[in-house]
Design goal:
Helix 1 packs across helix 7 and helix 2 runs antiparallel to helix 3. The chain has a domain of 141 residues. The protein is built from 7 helices and no strands. By secondary structure, it is mostly helical.
Length: 218
């Protein structure tokens, strides 16, 4: 039953990613990195990501002809989605690295996943933030934009990964006697849930960062 549910969830995520990607190609975002972020979020947020994209994302397309009437919650949601996109990309890249190399820390592959995926999620998260800041701030130079990116996204990335890793620990130690591995659809279904939890955990810090002016409301 879990395998069937996993295949259905993964199929829905892929379909939602394709739907968003096709529309993004037709209606590119003003902020280029969002052309990547929205489809990535479609993979784990599924139909909700499609709804959010057409309700809020399309307002920031280059050819948008509607007034941007989003409230603060919607703008923070997009900011958190931007962070989630970078983290998710890093996590997805990290999984096969650990699986193919067979590395372990203290005899645990879970801890290896934590280390590798955190490093990659942080690097991609900061890179995604840099690609949002630098085009609007070129006069201040690369290093200044890089520093702003670190300041704006470090807390967001850390909290996203805390939420995700917490769910991975539950899966590994509580839900399964034999935890699924990356060759099984149930593993990736658990990862979809992990990304959603990571997003929910990172939303309050993103709200705080925006309120303090450390991070721009997107």
């Amino acid at each position: 039953m879990l395998t069937t549910i996993s295949w259905i969830a993964l199929a829905i995520g892929i379909i939602c990613t394709i739907i968003i990607a096709i529309d993004v190609i037709r209606h590119p975002q003003m902020m280029r990195i969002m052309n990547i972020v929205w489809p990535i979020n479609g993979w784990f947020f599924g139909p909700f990501a499609v709804w959010a994209y057409f309700k809020w994302g399309r307002l920031k397309a280059k050819d948008a002809n509607k007034e941007d009437d989003r409230n603060k919650s919607a703008k923070v949601f997009v900011s958190a989605s931007h962070c989630a996109g970078g983290c998710t990309f890093g996590d997805i890249v990290g999984v096969p690295i650990v699986a193919m190399t067979g590395i372990a820390i203290a005899g645990s592959t879970l801890f290896a996943h934590y280390l590798v995926e955190f490093i990659l999620a942080y690097l991609f998260g900061i890179a995604f933030q840099f690609l949002a800041i630098y085009p609007m701030d070129k006069d201040q130079g690369v290093m200044q934009s890089f520093k702003k990116s670190i300041k704006a996204d470090t807390l967001s990335v850390i909290t996203f990964q805390i939420g995700m890793f917490g769910w991975m620990a539950i899966v590994h130690y509580l839900l399964f006697t034999n935890p699924p591995n990356p060759s099984e659809p149930s593993y990736w279904f658990m990862m979809q849930i992990a990304m959603i939890i990571g997003f929910l955990v990172s939303f309050p810090p993103n709200w705080w960062l925006v309120r303090k002016g450390i991070k721009e409301a997107m």
